[in-house]
Amino acid sequence: MVNLACAPNLEGIIDKITVAANIPTIVTIGENCLVYQRSLISSAEKPYDIFLAADIESAKELVDLGIGFDLRIYARGRLCLFAFDKKPSLEDIEKARLIAMPDPNVAPYGRATYEFLKNTNLLDEHKLIFGRNPKEVLEIHKDRKADLAFLPLSFVLANLKSENYFELDISYYKPIEQAGVIVNKTNEAILLFDFITNGEFAKNIFKEYGL
């Protein structure tokens, strides 16, 4: 059995890959990937065999600490603007009263959103409401506390099944390179990690969902 912890933007995606790998796996997706990184650093028993982060820095820190091994970039994330009631546009950002987005202090997609807003001269700090993960950002928007939401494109494609999104120009923010590491080098973990990071099936699934 392989215990795999991953970034929340992989919800609805990673299970398709682990099932195809045919390796018994427990997938853990929660608040944000920093939770798992910190638990790996603080726990002597290392509760996860594989860690798939939403950035490269979280994975690299584990390598630097001698906890993670064989760092590989497995996906490159993209951002989109989402609205429940219509297909949004950049003009809607200026018109919006409040906008939900991932917290840039804890979420790589939040840092990318902030960078996008700054580089497009659309940043208005007073409009922003932060969520710790895509689900929380979506809830803020759903509860009408915000007119729009910035979300990972992968999360929208995999979970919302909606066309009410506008993909943001990647030239206005740094590529969101998502990296993974092996923590416990069991045979099953090594095989699964290679399937996720090198296998054609996984690459096609990631591509299908905007990664």
Overview of this structure, please?
The chain is of the alpha/beta class and 211 residues long. It has nine helices and ten strands. The protein has helices at residues 14-21, 33-42, 57-64, 90-95, 108-119, 134-142, 153-160, 187-198, 200-208, and strands at 2-6, 25-29, 50-52, 69-77, 79-82, 99-102, 128-131, 148-152, 165-167, 176-182. The strands form two sheets. Strands 2-1-3-10-4 form a five-stranded mixed beta sheet. Strand 1 (2-6), helix 1 and strand 2 (25-29) form a beta-alpha-beta unit. The chain is globular. The mean pLDDT is 93.
Question: What's the layout of helices and strands?
Answer:
Blueprint: E1 2-6, H1 14-21, E2 25-29, H2 33-42, E3 50-52, H3 57-64, E4 69-77, E5 79-82, H4 90-95, E6 99-102, H5 108-119, E7 128-131, H6 134-142, E8 148-152, H7 153-160, E9 165-167, E10 176-182, H8 187-198, H9 200-208
Helix pairs in contact: 8-9
Q: Quick recap of the structure?
A:
By secondary structure, the protein is α/β, with parallel strands linked by helices. The chain is built from nine helices and ten strands. 39% of the residues lie in helices and 23% in strands.
